[in-house]
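Hi R.,

Here's the chain you asked about this morning:
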Amino acid sequence: MSTQLPLRNLAEQAMRRQWFPVARSIDLDTPQSATLLGQRLVVYRTESGKAVVQDARCPHRGADFSLGKVHGENIACPYHGWQFSAENGKCSHVPSLEDQCKIPPQAKIRTYPVIERFAHVWTALETPVNGMYDPAQWRDLELDWLAATPLESPTGVAVAIENFRDVAHFPFVHEVSMGPTKHIVEPLSVRREGLDVWMERPLDAGDGDWANDGDCMMFYHCAAPGLASITYNYEKLGKRIVVGFPSPVAYDHVRIFWGVANERSYRGADLEECLRIEELVYREDMPIAAGIQPREIDWDGTYIEHSVPADLFTLNYRRAFREFMERAKTTAPAFPVDVVAVV
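And the predicted structure, written out as tokens:
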């Protein structure tokens, strides 16, 4: 009898070794609650400005730190006021103790690695397989970012990414936001290198909400497992970006963090208007995505699926995701899990 794990299990294990967003940077005035693959977390910013991700459960009597308060470089439990260090998670103060030398020496909460990027706070539950997403096409751009209100979706990460990057559904799902678009999809030019997949397509603005900006080139990019973006390059306006990074609350349920960015020299609509337009698209997708079965890609081949040339981008994304799973099985840790980096 084979003892090989189902690919679903390998996918879930692999995602524990991946960076995912757990909060928007703008929300850290107070501690925030987050859940990543079933692990309850607290996300907060210390007095010195450092973003921190730690376990949400207090090891004293189990209260939730997201209901607590930040004191300098510590977070305090809302139940009994025990304070824990943002640096290493150790208990640093117990109000009920007259002698602080008697703090239980094992009282500690786990502290996770942190990176701030794209106006969000990112973490990983276990030692990451790869470095944080750093798309080459944005490195030379001066960008202003605006984080959107996250959206909840009863789908897995891969289903959410496929929905973002599928091009054949536009005429049927986005008729309001995009206006009427062609049903026939032209031959797609898709390129994959490892975990990254790229595609270029011209945008015919049509007569939807995007019509005022005119036609442009769209540069599609996704990176397995969980980043999908479009960089719009308008000849007369400059570049703007929409990007989504679904974060797995559970294997088959995501909180979709996303946002928009404009080149500082962009001459089109401001960030708020760009976000409004893109949110129309997202909200049109949500009820359709919520009905997809199974709720995550069927890595084990239980369901029958049929593909056509219009699926070329998403099929390459699936290949990239499988490579990610293989790397998670075989790649040595890139750096210790307790390293905290802020970018």
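The longest strand covers residues 238-250.

Let me know if you need anything else.
M.
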